[in-house]
Write a structure and sequence with these properties.
By secondary structure, the chain is of the alpha+beta class. It is built from six helices and 17 strands. It has a five-stranded antiparallel sheet. The chain is elongated, with a radius of gyration of 42 Å.
């Protein structure tokens, strides 16, 4: 329920003797000069008007007739002004907004202090990572004219492809919206397009010069900092250097055999990689193992989420429909590490699961 209406408050009280008018009422009656105001929940909202009223001995207020009001108005020249507290709501609103403003300013100050601390911590970490750089790293650039709140999102990734002394070959991985992608998507794009994307050679000292430890120099100075990496009249600073070393996790799904073909279904739960070789293993326990696998190598394997990504190994069956194979698949990760998985299945039946193990 909203409570509002008109109320009044006393500004000053006069005796008839003070005014110089004969008192036709009781001796203790007084004239009050009052301020009427609009209230909301009894809090003065704004003043309405001033008026004179008669306070009798019974403590109640009474209206004055017109002629007496006229005499009193004429007799009292110096009347009280509208009190400040009749504007109390506006004052409270001002105090509230002023408090909010101060709070926002304080929060902005604290946020900036936190930004400076986080930026400088990350810059020191990037300097350290630059000294340990290898082909297992992504370097992420941020336009030097971007505001700090874009520092963590507006990133342009480069893949370290090769290191030759103090010179570093970087692959450019930011077509379209890929610059906002996860490392998983970046690595997938790299494996598919690494021979097509642009690359640049750059000195390590030049890279180091684009890591600024001073927050104000980057975000508060009028002078633009950074390096025009790609001769596009656009300068960048290094915002992140991170390792992307992954692991490969393979799981068997099913075999399919007939007299003509062998098909093995596997799933990759790990990081993206390439099959670079499928090697047949010969031993006395197996039928002659000379399967000519039809997979086009290198074969790219996507990285995966929890549900996995299937891929297939296929080839003609040289064993007259017998259910056996013994192979080693060689997988190369983005950091050029080679993993070898031996997948071995003996004759007994099609449904039996093969043994999968990593070869050191």
């Amino acid at each position: 329920m909203i409570i509002f209406g008109l109320r009044s408050l006393k500004l000053k009280s006069y005796s008839f003797e003070e005014i110089g008018i004969a008192n036709e009422n009781s001796p203790k009656s007084r004239v009050e000069y009052r301020q009427k105001y609009f209230h909301l929940f009894f809090i003065p909202f704004f003043p309405v008007k001033k008026f004179f009223a008669l306070r009798k001995e019974d403590g109640k207020l009474y209206d004055l007739n017109y002629s007496l009001t006229y005499k009193i108005e004429d007799a009292i020249k110096d009347k009280p002004k509208t009190p400040w507290y009749s504007f109390l709501v506006f004052i409270l609103i001002f105090i509230m907004y002023f408090s909010i403003f101060c709070n926002l300013q304080y929060k902005s100050f604290k946020d900036k202090q936190s930004d400076i601390k986080n930026y400088e911590k990350k810059a020191l970490q990037n300097k350290k990572e630059l000294n340990n750089l290898n082909t297992n790293y992504l370097i992420k650039l941020t336009p030097s004219n971007s505001p700090y709140y874009m520092y963590k999102t507006d990133r342009f990734p480069l893949k370290v492809e090769k290191i030759n002394g103090d010179s570093i070959l970087l692959k450019k991985l930011f077509p379209n919206k890929l610059k906002y992608s996860s490392n998983k998507n970046l690595l997938e794009y790299y494996f598919i397009n690494k021979n097509l994307v642009d690359s640049i050679w750059i000195k390590k000292e030049t890279l180091k010069s684009t890591i600024y430890l001073d927050y104000d120099k980057v975000y508060e100075s009028e002078k633009e900092v950074g390096l025009d990496f790609f001769n596009e009249n656009k300068k960048y600073i290094i915002s992140d250097i991170e390792s992307i070393e992954g692991r490969i996790v393979l799981q068997f799904i099913e075999n399919k055999f007939n007299k003509e073909e062998i098909s093995i279904t596997l799933i990759n739960y790990g990081e993206p990689c390439e099959i670079i070789k499928i090697e047949n293993v010969f031993d006395n326990y197996m039928f002659p193992n000379n399967i000519k696998w039809s997979n086009q190598l290198p074969q790219y394997l996507k990285s995966n989420n929890a549900i996995g990504e299937k891929f297939y190994l296929k080839g003609p069956n040289p064993n007259n429909g017998k259910y056996s194979y013994n192979i080693i698949i060689h997988l190369k990760t983005i950091d050029n590490k080679i993993y070898k998985f031996q997948i071995k299945k003996e004759i007994p039946k099609e449904e039996s699961r093969p043994e999968i193990k990593i070869i050191k």
